[in-house]
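Supplementary Note 3. Input sequence used for the single-chain structure prediction.
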Amino acid sequence: MTLLQDLQTFPPLFIALAGVIGLIVGSFLNVVIHRLPKMMERDWKAQCAELSGIDVKTEATYNLLTPGSACPHCNRKIGAFENIPVISYLLLGGKCKGCHAPISMRYPIVELLSGALSSFAAWHFGFGLAGLAALILIWALIALTCIDLDTQLLPDDITLPLLWLGLIFNMSNAFTSLPNAVIGAISGYLILWSVYWVFKLTTGKEGMGYGDFKLLAAIGAWFGWQMLPLVILLSSVVGAIVGITLIVAAKHGRDIPIPFGPYLAGGGLIALFWGAQLTQSYLQIFASP
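The predicted structure, written as discrete structure tokens, is reproduced below.
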């Protein structure tokens, strides 16, 4: 019996494997979250310099793989045994082995979240196209959430491939039909684009960024246009609650922007696991006399 057959016939094996892979991918997501915004900034500076005709010094290679991981405080190279998801953090006591500077709790949290959601997706969908697609979506949404919280950016390098992947997976009806996915992508973008311009024309301020449009378009491509009202409702309610809480409890200034991407990502995750049931429930409520 092959490994693929084992994964199909013995679900606990697939669930465990998905969890382990999720932990490993979570470790890589920490690299993406930290480095991708810096890579984007370097690209923007290079483009601006080129347009201005300014000579720029050749910088050392910096991408998701090079240079190797190092402590941001003492620049000590991190060895392979210090990169084991969660376990290394616990063994090191949450501190750098060299300078004993504290390591952010985000690293093990991202790894655990990735592993837990990956296992849950494997249990929920089982071994197949939908299960594989769900893992990819989960990992992308985790990265986008953390990057948006840090920088208020939703990189095209993630949102646009996510949109195309949604359409590709739905060519085989992974979550919805391809026509529904195409309409969902168009509708998702236009809905927030329209909200953006209405808000800007009435207040003179920008209420959200173009990355939010692209993320909702990607979610529409994955689940179809029928799921967009649920995603928008969930993300708006949670966003409003968190925003009011920050203003009242944490004295968060009203003029300080709050990223909307994490709430869209949360709405997308809820739609992934329970969207069909929730949509059916509220349709029944509105349809009842």
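The two ends are 55 Å apart (CA to CA). The mean pLDDT is 87.
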